[in-house]
Amino acid sequence: MSATGAEVKTGIICGREILVVDDELAIRKGLRALLEASGYEVRTARDGAGALTAVRAKRPNLVLLDVMMPVLDGFSACAAIRRNDRDLPIVFLTAKDADEDQVKGLEVGADDFVSKGAVDSVLLARIKNAIERGARLAGNAAPENLTKTEADIYRLLASEIGRHFSVIEIFSAIRGLGCVPSDGNLRTHMSRLRSKLPSGLSVDVVRGRGYALVRT
User: Fold this and answer.
1) What distance in Å separates the CA atoms of residue 51 and residue 77, rounded to the nearest whole number?
2) DSSP 8-class letter at 165
3) 131-164: b (≥16 Cβ within 10 Å) or e
4) By the 8 A CB rule, do 91 and 113 touch?
5) Which of 22, 28, 45, 158 is spaced 20 to 30 A from 91 at the CA atom?
6) For 2-43, how does the pLDDT look when each residue is reduced to its tens digit (9 = 90+)?
């Protein structure tokens, strides 16, 4: 990708096209105005089915996705996108922001979860962070049998073989600073990752230091 129409920061080239998906026209118009004023290119879709069609037609640099929509809801659309594209950044923007909704969103492969009540500066920061994280993590190859979260963790650990990353470092790298670290949740992902690692690699954990990818 050339640097034209992109942002270059600390060696990372980040594309600027966002697909906004929401069933309310007023919200689509408002988000388009906000994002275009911030230098992004914007396409829109009014439901999950339209989002899938738009992604197939041209891959955006991020999908900003509502949850409660007709035809195909956001959770189902996210899961469908993930079956074909593990690395496309997806951020949910929704009024349905209870803890269980956020957990479900992350389980189906979202990168982040932002409330529609959030101020514009927070939304823009989370979008920028998601695009930059996606560009940074996608720079390292990961085994095809890994899920989105497993692949992101693998890429981070593989960036410095033998180095132990703390729980906070891992969550900050793969979810951003807005995500609250969960040691229990991370242990589940690590257990699944261990069972899928290529021969010659394993995950080492040291209490108080964190997780490292090591050669065996």
Assistant:
1) 7
2) B
3) bbbbbbbbeeebeeebbbbbbbbbbbbeeeeeeb
4) yes
5) 158
6) 333 444 333 444 679 999 999 999 999 999 999 999 999 999
